[in-house]
Amino acid sequence: MRKFLIFITFLLGVASCVYPFDPVLEGTSDDMVVFEGSIVVGGVSKVRVSKVKSFGDEPRPVSRCVVWVEDDGGGRYNATSSSSNAEYIIPTQGPSQDRKYRMVAEVDGKKYSSDWIKPLAPPALERVDFIPSPIGNNLDVFVTLKGGEESTGYMGIYFDETWEFHADYMCRYILDTENWEVIPRGEPYPNYWCWNSASSSMSILDHSEYDGGRIESYPVHSFSRSDKRTQRKYSINVRAITLPKETYRYLKNLDDISNGSGSLFSPNPGEMASNVACESDPSSRTMGYVTASFEISLRAYVDNRYYVEVPPSQSYLSVPPNMFAYLSYYQNNYYPVDFMTMEVGEQVVQDIFWGPMRCIDCVVEGGTKQKPDFWEDE
Which of 36, 93, 189, 220 suits a disulfide with 4, CB 3.0-4.6 Å? Predict the structure, then answer.
Protein backbone atom coordinates (compact mmCIF):
# COMPACT_ATOMS: atom_id res chain seq x y z
CA MET A 1 0.00 0.00 0.00
CA ARG A 2 2.96 2.36 0.32
CA LYS A 3 2.80 2.92 -3.45
CA PHE A 4 -0.34 4.93 -2.92
CA LEU A 5 1.51 8.06 -1.83
CA ILE A 6 4.12 7.85 -4.57
CA PHE A 7 1.78 9.90 -6.72
CA ILE A 8 2.77 12.90 -4.60
CA THR A 9 6.07 13.06 -6.45
CA PHE A 10 4.70 12.38 -9.90
CA LEU A 11 5.33 15.32 -12.22
CA LEU A 12 2.42 15.60 -14.60
CA GLY A 13 3.17 17.16 -17.96
CA VAL A 14 6.95 16.65 -17.89
CA ALA A 15 6.95 15.25 -21.40
CA SER A 16 3.60 16.68 -22.44
CA CYS A 17 3.09 18.79 -25.52
CA VAL A 18 -0.46 19.76 -24.53
CA TYR A 19 -1.17 22.15 -21.65
CA PRO A 20 0.63 22.34 -18.31
CA PHE A 21 -1.22 20.69 -15.44
CA ASP A 22 -2.01 22.80 -12.38
CA PRO A 23 -1.17 20.51 -9.45
CA VAL A 24 -3.32 22.41 -6.94
CA LEU A 25 -6.52 20.56 -6.09
CA GLU A 26 -9.35 22.57 -7.57
CA GLY A 27 -12.50 23.48 -5.71
CA THR A 28 -11.01 23.76 -2.23
CA SER A 29 -8.34 25.63 -0.32
CA ASP A 30 -8.49 23.15 2.55
CA ASP A 31 -6.21 20.20 3.10
CA MET A 32 -7.52 16.93 1.72
CA VAL A 33 -7.36 13.95 4.06
CA VAL A 34 -5.75 10.91 2.43
CA PHE A 35 -6.39 7.35 3.60
CA GLU A 36 -4.67 4.15 2.61
CA GLY A 37 -5.66 1.09 4.54
CA SER A 38 -5.63 -2.65 4.45
CA ILE A 39 -8.03 -4.50 6.75
CA VAL A 40 -6.66 -8.01 7.15
CA VAL A 41 -9.17 -10.34 8.79
CA GLY A 42 -7.24 -12.91 10.81
CA GLY A 43 -4.09 -10.79 10.77
CA VAL A 44 -2.84 -7.28 11.40
CA SER A 45 -4.53 -4.32 9.72
CA LYS A 46 -2.70 -1.12 8.84
CA VAL A 47 -4.10 2.32 8.04
CA ARG A 48 -2.08 5.39 7.08
CA VAL A 49 -3.65 8.83 7.40
CA SER A 50 -2.15 12.04 6.02
CA LYS A 51 -3.06 15.41 4.53
CA VAL A 52 -2.20 17.00 1.21
CA LYS A 53 -3.18 20.27 -0.44
CA SER A 54 -1.70 19.73 -3.89
CA PHE A 55 -0.13 16.88 -5.79
CA GLY A 56 3.27 18.54 -5.48
CA ASP A 57 3.14 18.63 -1.68
CA GLU A 58 4.72 16.12 0.64
CA PRO A 59 2.06 14.18 2.58
CA ARG A 60 1.83 15.45 6.14
CA PRO A 61 0.70 13.36 9.13
CA VAL A 62 -2.41 14.58 10.92
CA SER A 63 -2.06 15.99 14.43
CA ARG A 64 -5.29 14.69 15.97
CA CYS A 65 -6.44 11.29 14.78
CA VAL A 66 -8.06 8.14 16.17
CA VAL A 67 -8.43 5.10 13.91
CA TRP A 68 -10.26 1.79 14.35
CA VAL A 69 -11.91 -1.05 12.41
CA GLU A 70 -15.58 -2.06 12.82
CA ASP A 71 -17.55 -5.11 11.77
CA ASP A 72 -21.28 -5.12 10.98
CA GLY A 73 -21.96 -7.14 14.12
CA GLY A 74 -20.94 -4.29 16.41
CA GLY A 75 -17.33 -5.35 16.94
CA ARG A 76 -14.68 -2.66 17.25
CA TYR A 77 -10.92 -3.16 16.91
CA ASN A 78 -8.77 -0.27 18.09
CA ALA A 79 -5.32 0.73 16.89
CA THR A 80 -2.59 -0.33 19.33
CA SER A 81 0.20 1.84 17.98
CA SER A 82 1.18 4.36 15.35
CA SER A 83 4.50 5.15 13.74
CA SER A 84 6.18 8.37 12.71
CA ASN A 85 4.67 8.14 9.23
CA ALA A 86 1.13 8.05 10.73
CA GLU A 87 0.57 4.36 10.02
CA TYR A 88 -1.79 2.86 12.59
CA ILE A 89 -1.48 -0.81 13.56
CA ILE A 90 -4.78 -2.58 14.35
CA PRO A 91 -4.82 -6.22 15.54
CA THR A 92 -7.67 -8.00 13.73
CA GLN A 93 -6.80 -11.65 14.39
CA GLY A 94 -10.09 -12.42 16.14
CA PRO A 95 -12.93 -11.12 13.93
CA SER A 96 -15.50 -13.47 12.43
CA GLN A 97 -15.02 -14.45 8.81
CA ASP A 98 -18.68 -13.95 7.85
CA ARG A 99 -18.87 -10.22 8.60
CA LYS A 100 -18.41 -7.03 6.63
CA TYR A 101 -15.79 -4.54 7.76
CA ARG A 102 -14.96 -0.87 7.46
CA MET A 103 -12.32 1.58 8.60
CA VAL A 104 -13.37 4.51 10.80
CA ALA A 105 -11.25 7.54 11.71
CA GLU A 106 -11.76 10.75 13.63
CA VAL A 107 -9.51 13.44 12.16
CA ASP A 108 -9.49 16.93 13.67
CA GLY A 109 -12.97 16.42 15.07
CA LYS A 110 -14.50 15.03 11.88
CA LYS A 111 -15.56 11.42 11.41
CA TYR A 112 -14.56 9.50 8.28
CA SER A 113 -15.47 5.95 7.29
CA SER A 114 -14.92 3.59 4.41
CA ASP A 115 -17.57 1.54 2.64
CA TRP A 116 -18.58 -1.75 4.25
CA ILE A 117 -16.46 -4.43 2.60
CA LYS A 118 -16.98 -8.20 2.49
CA PRO A 119 -13.55 -9.85 2.48
CA LEU A 120 -12.88 -12.42 -0.21
CA ALA A 121 -11.29 -15.82 0.32
CA PRO A 122 -7.51 -15.68 -0.24
CA PRO A 123 -5.50 -17.29 -3.04
CA ALA A 124 -3.79 -20.64 -2.52
CA LEU A 125 -0.01 -20.60 -2.00
CA GLU A 126 1.65 -23.84 -3.07
CA ARG A 127 5.40 -23.38 -2.63
CA VAL A 128 8.31 -20.96 -2.43
CA ASP A 129 11.53 -21.59 -4.36
CA PHE A 130 15.02 -20.09 -4.01
CA ILE A 131 16.95 -20.17 -7.29
CA PRO A 132 20.34 -18.56 -8.11
CA SER A 133 19.94 -16.12 -10.97
CA PRO A 134 21.38 -17.42 -14.26
CA ILE A 135 22.71 -13.93 -14.92
CA GLY A 136 24.50 -11.94 -12.25
CA ASN A 137 25.04 -12.80 -8.62
CA ASN A 138 21.50 -12.72 -7.22
CA LEU A 139 19.33 -15.17 -5.36
CA ASP A 140 15.80 -15.04 -6.78
CA VAL A 141 12.68 -15.94 -4.80
CA PHE A 142 9.64 -17.35 -6.61
CA VAL A 143 6.18 -18.38 -5.42
CA THR A 144 3.72 -20.72 -7.10
CA LEU A 145 0.07 -19.93 -6.38
CA LYS A 146 -3.46 -20.01 -7.76
CA GLY A 147 -6.63 -17.97 -7.46
CA GLY A 148 -8.54 -19.81 -4.75
CA GLU A 149 -12.25 -20.28 -4.02
CA GLU A 150 -13.39 -16.71 -4.65
CA SER A 151 -10.86 -15.79 -7.29
CA THR A 152 -11.56 -12.54 -9.12
CA GLY A 153 -8.52 -12.80 -11.34
CA TYR A 154 -6.67 -10.20 -9.26
CA MET A 155 -4.51 -10.45 -6.18
CA GLY A 156 -2.03 -8.58 -4.03
CA ILE A 157 1.30 -10.13 -3.01
CA TYR A 158 3.76 -8.91 -0.37
CA PHE A 159 6.21 -10.43 2.07
CA ASP A 160 8.11 -10.17 5.34
CA GLU A 161 11.72 -11.33 5.45
CA THR A 162 14.02 -12.19 8.34
CA TRP A 163 17.67 -13.22 8.34
CA GLU A 164 20.46 -14.09 10.74
CA PHE A 165 23.70 -12.26 10.06
CA HIS A 166 26.96 -11.25 11.73
CA ALA A 167 28.97 -8.08 12.14
CA ASP A 168 31.84 -7.39 9.74
CA TYR A 169 34.54 -8.35 12.22
CA MET A 170 34.84 -10.55 15.27
CA CYS A 171 36.01 -8.30 18.12
CA ARG A 172 38.81 -10.14 19.95
CA TYR A 173 40.30 -7.27 21.97
CA ILE A 174 39.06 -4.72 24.47
CA LEU A 175 40.29 -1.34 25.66
CA ASP A 176 41.04 -1.24 29.39
CA THR A 177 40.11 2.38 30.13
CA GLU A 178 41.59 2.24 33.65
CA ASN A 179 45.10 1.50 32.44
CA TRP A 180 44.56 2.64 28.81
CA GLU A 181 45.87 -0.51 27.26
CA VAL A 182 44.49 -2.99 24.74
CA ILE A 183 44.06 -6.54 26.09
CA PRO A 184 42.56 -9.76 24.71
CA ARG A 185 38.91 -10.40 25.48
CA GLY A 186 38.20 -12.97 28.15
CA GLU A 187 35.00 -14.08 26.40
CA PRO A 188 33.49 -13.64 22.90
CA TYR A 189 31.95 -10.29 22.07
CA PRO A 190 28.19 -10.86 22.51
CA ASN A 191 26.88 -8.82 19.59
CA TYR A 192 28.50 -10.63 16.70
CA TRP A 193 25.38 -12.54 15.55
CA CYS A 194 21.96 -10.86 15.17
CA TRP A 195 18.63 -11.05 13.36
CA ASN A 196 17.25 -8.41 11.05
CA SER A 197 13.97 -8.06 9.17
CA ALA A 198 12.18 -6.04 6.50
CA SER A 199 8.78 -5.86 4.81
CA SER A 200 7.80 -5.17 1.22
CA SER A 201 5.06 -3.03 -0.21
CA MET A 202 2.23 -4.82 -2.02
CA SER A 203 2.52 -5.70 -5.69
CA ILE A 204 -0.69 -6.27 -7.62
CA LEU A 205 -1.18 -9.06 -10.10
CA ASP A 206 -3.69 -9.66 -12.88
CA HIS A 207 -3.94 -13.42 -13.43
CA SER A 208 -7.37 -13.43 -15.06
CA GLU A 209 -5.96 -14.82 -18.30
CA TYR A 210 -3.85 -17.56 -16.73
CA ASP A 211 -4.97 -21.11 -17.44
CA GLY A 212 -6.89 -22.31 -14.38
CA GLY A 213 -5.81 -19.21 -12.44
CA ARG A 214 -2.53 -20.93 -11.51
CA ILE A 215 0.75 -19.03 -11.65
CA GLU A 216 3.98 -21.00 -11.75
CA SER A 217 7.12 -19.43 -10.27
CA TYR A 218 6.02 -15.80 -9.90
CA PRO A 219 9.06 -13.63 -8.92
CA VAL A 220 8.55 -11.90 -5.57
CA HIS A 221 12.07 -10.92 -4.47
CA SER A 222 15.73 -10.88 -5.48
CA PHE A 223 18.92 -9.92 -3.67
CA SER A 224 22.67 -10.36 -3.99
CA ARG A 225 24.15 -13.66 -2.88
CA SER A 226 26.81 -11.54 -1.15
CA ASP A 227 24.12 -9.82 0.89
CA LYS A 228 24.11 -10.49 4.63
CA ARG A 229 20.70 -12.12 4.20
CA THR A 230 22.45 -15.32 3.20
CA GLN A 231 25.27 -15.40 5.77
CA ARG A 232 23.66 -18.10 7.92
CA LYS A 233 19.90 -18.49 7.45
CA TYR A 234 17.14 -16.58 5.65
CA SER A 235 13.37 -16.76 5.92
CA ILE A 236 10.66 -15.19 3.79
CA ASN A 237 6.96 -15.18 4.65
CA VAL A 238 5.00 -14.60 1.43
CA ARG A 239 1.49 -13.17 1.92
CA ALA A 240 -1.33 -12.96 -0.60
CA ILE A 241 -4.87 -11.56 -0.76
CA THR A 242 -7.65 -11.62 -3.33
CA LEU A 243 -8.51 -8.18 -4.73
CA PRO A 244 -11.90 -7.14 -6.11
CA LYS A 245 -11.65 -5.90 -9.68
CA GLU A 246 -12.51 -2.33 -8.62
CA THR A 247 -9.71 -2.31 -6.05
CA TYR A 248 -7.23 -3.70 -8.54
CA ARG A 249 -8.15 -1.03 -11.11
CA TYR A 250 -7.76 1.71 -8.50
CA LEU A 251 -4.33 0.48 -7.39
CA LYS A 252 -3.24 -0.13 -10.99
CA ASN A 253 -4.14 3.43 -11.95
CA LEU A 254 -2.08 4.75 -9.05
CA ASP A 255 0.81 2.52 -10.02
CA ASP A 256 0.65 3.72 -13.64
CA ILE A 257 0.52 7.36 -12.56
CA SER A 258 3.40 7.04 -10.10
CA ASN A 259 5.57 5.23 -12.66
CA GLY A 260 4.65 7.48 -15.56
CA SER A 261 3.20 4.63 -17.61
CA GLY A 262 -0.39 5.84 -17.73
CA SER A 263 -1.98 6.99 -20.97
CA LEU A 264 -2.99 10.57 -21.82
CA PHE A 265 -6.54 9.68 -20.82
CA SER A 266 -5.72 8.01 -17.51
CA PRO A 267 -7.41 9.67 -14.53
CA ASN A 268 -5.31 11.79 -12.23
CA PRO A 269 -5.48 10.87 -8.52
CA GLY A 270 -7.97 13.64 -7.73
CA GLU A 271 -10.45 12.23 -10.24
CA MET A 272 -10.30 8.64 -8.98
CA ALA A 273 -13.15 7.51 -6.79
CA SER A 274 -12.38 6.93 -3.12
CA ASN A 275 -14.29 4.48 -0.92
CA VAL A 276 -13.78 6.73 2.13
CA ALA A 277 -16.13 9.62 2.94
CA CYS A 278 -16.53 12.23 5.67
CA GLU A 279 -19.69 11.49 7.69
CA SER A 280 -19.50 14.80 9.57
CA ASP A 281 -19.27 16.90 6.40
CA PRO A 282 -20.20 15.10 3.15
CA SER A 283 -18.82 18.04 1.14
CA SER A 284 -15.30 17.44 2.48
CA ARG A 285 -13.11 15.86 -0.17
CA THR A 286 -11.15 12.74 0.64
CA MET A 287 -8.70 10.63 -1.27
CA GLY A 288 -7.60 7.05 -0.89
CA TYR A 289 -8.81 3.50 -0.75
CA VAL A 290 -9.33 0.91 1.96
CA THR A 291 -9.30 -2.82 1.22
CA ALA A 292 -10.50 -5.76 3.30
CA SER A 293 -9.32 -9.30 2.77
CA PHE A 294 -8.52 -12.68 4.21
CA GLU A 295 -4.80 -13.22 4.05
CA ILE A 296 -2.87 -16.41 3.43
CA SER A 297 0.85 -16.78 4.09
CA LEU A 298 3.57 -19.32 3.42
CA ARG A 299 6.96 -19.25 5.13
CA ALA A 300 10.10 -20.75 3.65
CA TYR A 301 13.74 -20.98 4.78
CA VAL A 302 17.08 -21.29 3.05
CA ASP A 303 20.50 -21.84 4.63
CA ASN A 304 23.79 -20.29 3.50
CA ARG A 305 24.39 -22.73 0.64
CA TYR A 306 24.15 -19.88 -1.89
CA TYR A 307 26.24 -17.36 0.06
CA VAL A 308 29.12 -15.77 -1.84
CA GLU A 309 31.47 -14.24 0.72
CA VAL A 310 32.91 -10.83 0.03
CA PRO A 311 35.55 -9.50 2.47
CA PRO A 312 34.25 -6.49 4.40
CA SER A 313 35.70 -3.08 3.68
CA GLN A 314 38.95 -2.31 5.44
CA SER A 315 38.92 1.38 4.56
CA TYR A 316 37.58 2.41 7.96
CA LEU A 317 40.17 0.39 9.94
CA SER A 318 43.35 1.97 11.25
CA VAL A 319 46.07 1.61 13.89
CA PRO A 320 46.60 4.30 16.53
CA PRO A 321 50.12 5.69 16.09
CA ASN A 322 50.86 5.25 19.80
CA MET A 323 49.25 4.68 23.21
CA PHE A 324 48.62 8.41 23.62
CA ALA A 325 46.20 8.25 20.66
CA TYR A 326 43.96 5.68 22.38
CA LEU A 327 41.91 8.37 24.10
CA SER A 328 41.16 10.32 20.92
CA TYR A 329 40.23 7.11 19.07
CA TYR A 330 37.95 6.12 21.94
CA GLN A 331 36.32 9.56 22.06
CA ASN A 332 35.57 9.21 18.33
CA ASN A 333 33.83 5.87 18.97
CA TYR A 334 36.62 3.73 17.58
CA TYR A 335 37.45 0.46 19.36
CA PRO A 336 40.11 -2.25 19.06
CA VAL A 337 38.94 -5.00 16.70
CA ASP A 338 41.50 -7.71 15.99
CA PHE A 339 45.13 -8.46 15.21
CA MET A 340 45.40 -8.28 11.43
CA THR A 341 47.88 -8.25 8.61
CA MET A 342 46.96 -5.52 6.17
CA GLU A 343 48.47 -3.39 3.44
CA VAL A 344 48.52 0.26 4.49
CA GLY A 345 49.82 2.36 1.66
CA GLU A 346 53.04 0.73 0.52
CA GLN A 347 53.62 -1.10 3.80
CA VAL A 348 52.34 -4.38 5.20
CA VAL A 349 51.23 -3.74 8.77
CA GLN A 350 50.74 -6.39 11.45
CA ASP A 351 49.02 -4.88 14.45
CA ILE A 352 45.75 -4.52 16.33
CA PHE A 353 43.48 -2.51 14.06
CA TRP A 354 40.68 -0.31 15.39
CA GLY A 355 37.30 0.42 13.81
CA PRO A 356 33.89 2.02 14.43
CA MET A 357 31.37 0.20 16.60
CA ARG A 358 29.14 -0.63 13.61
CA CYS A 359 31.82 -2.94 12.18
CA ILE A 360 31.92 -5.14 15.32
CA ASP A 361 28.41 -4.78 16.76
CA CYS A 362 25.45 -6.21 14.83
CA VAL A 363 22.95 -4.33 17.03
CA VAL A 364 24.54 -1.00 16.15
CA GLU A 365 24.37 -2.13 12.52
CA GLY A 366 20.58 -2.39 12.86
CA GLY A 367 20.02 -5.94 14.08
CA THR A 368 18.43 -7.40 17.19
CA LYS A 369 19.47 -10.11 19.63
CA GLN A 370 15.81 -11.09 20.13
CA LYS A 371 15.27 -14.39 18.37
CA PRO A 372 11.98 -14.41 16.39
CA ASP A 373 9.28 -16.69 17.83
CA PHE A 374 8.88 -18.51 14.52
CA TRP A 375 12.58 -19.10 13.92
CA GLU A 376 13.52 -22.70 13.20
CA ASP A 377 16.91 -23.80 14.51
CA GLU A 378 19.05 -26.08 12.41
Answer: 36
pLDDT tens-digit readout, 64-96: 889 999 999 999 999 987 765 678 999 998 777
Residues 6+ apart with CB under 8 A from 271: none
Domain limits, the chain: 2-120+271-294
Q: Which residues contact 236 (CB under 8 A, 6 or more apart)?
A: 128, 141, 159, 160, 161, 162, 220, 221, 299, 300
CA distance 275 to 290: 7
Residues 208 and 154: beta-carbon distance below 8 Å: yes
Per-residue pLDDT tens digits for 357-375: 999 999 999 999 999 999 9
Closest residue by Cα to residue 161 from 204, 200, 128, 217: 200
Cα–chain center distance at 349:
43
- C-alpha 146/C-alpha 165 separation (Å) is 33
For 36, other C-beta atoms within 10 Å of its C-beta total 24
Encode pLDDT of 133-170 as tens digits.
Answer: 998 899 999 999 998 888 899 999 999 999 999 999 99
Q: Was domain 2-120+271-294 assigned CATH 2.60.40.1930?
A: yes
